[in-house]
Amino acid sequence: MNLFRTYIEILFVSFRLGLTSFGGPVAHLAYFQDEYVNRRKWLDDKSYADLIALCQFLPGPASSQVGISIGMVRGGIIGGILAWFGFTVPSVIALVLFALFLNGSGVQDAVWISALKVVAVAVVAHAIMNMGKKLTPDRPRITIAVLAAFILLFYQTAFAQISIILIAAMIGVYLFRKQDLPEGQDVELNYKKKTGVVSLILFIAFLIGTPILASNVSSVYITLFDIFYRVGSIVFGGGHVVLPLLQAEVVPNGLVSKELFLAGYGATQAVPGPMFTFSSYLGTIIASVPGAIVATLAMFLPSFFLLVGVLPFWNQLRKNKNVRAGLLGVNAAVVGILLAALYDPIWTSAIHSNKDIAIAIGSFTLLYHWKKPAWLVVLVTVVAYIGVSLLV
User: Fold this and answer.
1) Less packed terminus of the chain by CB within 10 Å, N or C?
2) Whole-number pLDDT of residue 108
3) 55 or 277: whose pLDDT is higher?
4) Which of 96-110, 289-303, 330-344 has the lowest mean pLDDT?
5) What is the pLDDT of residues 180-193, one digit of tens each?
6) What is the mean pLDDT of residues 234-247?
7) For residue 341, which of 80, 151, 135, 115 has the smallest C-alpha distance?
8) In the predicted model, is pLDDT for residue 57 greater than 50?
9) Residue 182 has what pLDDT?
10) Residue 354 Cα to chain centre, angstroms
11) Percent of the chain, pLDDT > 70?
């Protein structure tokens, strides 16, 4: 019964986050921190930052992977599946409906979409304040964070982000390896390392075998699975990075027209949850609802294989003194990455007037000083933004 209640709790909380987590991957991490770390205490800040660092190294949607990892820590593999399902299904449903019933034009310019972009500024700023206090408490780590932000503002690529993390890890080893370092909470899992090894073997088997199958069997569903599994396996950085890869896979060969692709892109900006659910829209355009199911599962399956494979070895890696020292550098760099993202793309796409700044300040005040939950701040901000827009 207790395990069943745990599963229900994971599903309920992740579903609520899936309904309210607007603003893209960086904002998602902020929502997760507020809900899973600050409010529910499912793990501490150090372990949360370590999971972010791990997911930054893996291909796939980083924010979704963090949510899946937290679900696995809380409720095993089933908990991870439930955390993914709850967080993902609202945007899947919304984008399937966009594909079936709407053309997507004008949706991205609606007033309430602008309000949701503004609240993302407050949510990310709140996360930076909280994480910065704990993960950059001294001058060396503040310097790492600032340099990471500085570099990323000039070179906004997935390669630059991965390079920053690797360099920060090396700096951390050099600066902190001789210190007596806290380990943070262990990641407790209810499956064995053998399961992790099998999962990694399956990841490779699907990556190699699916293209061979697709080239020999004429089936739209196998073709869809091949396309989205490969993209989900190779994309680093998540979010917007996945869009050009998908465009190269589905537009030139005529599976989706450029016009429909761009309409789906606009719709994706208007819904909460992971941007990787753009696959749900494209799958619907290509093969209706069954196509959406195949494309969505194929897009996220590599993340499950990789996380199930890597997490059983994570505790051992974290207890190694050099690894822990490196993670101090990485965690500081994560704060810098968040800081850079707060400006671009979040601030640049959300703040266009004094009204936007005023609403963002009010949202931040509710989060930081009044300690209100993020989902409530989202609702209040939308109502306030629409009200101000009608008056001004």
Assistant:
1) N
2) 46
3) 277
4) 96-110
5) 766 556 666 777 88
6) 66
7) 151
8) yes
9) 60
10) 29
11) 89
Token pair of 328, please?
Answer: 């101090």
Name the one residue in this structure whose structure tokens are 């080239």. Answer: 215
Which residue do the tokens 């990455």 mark? 337
Residue 236 has a pLDDT of 57
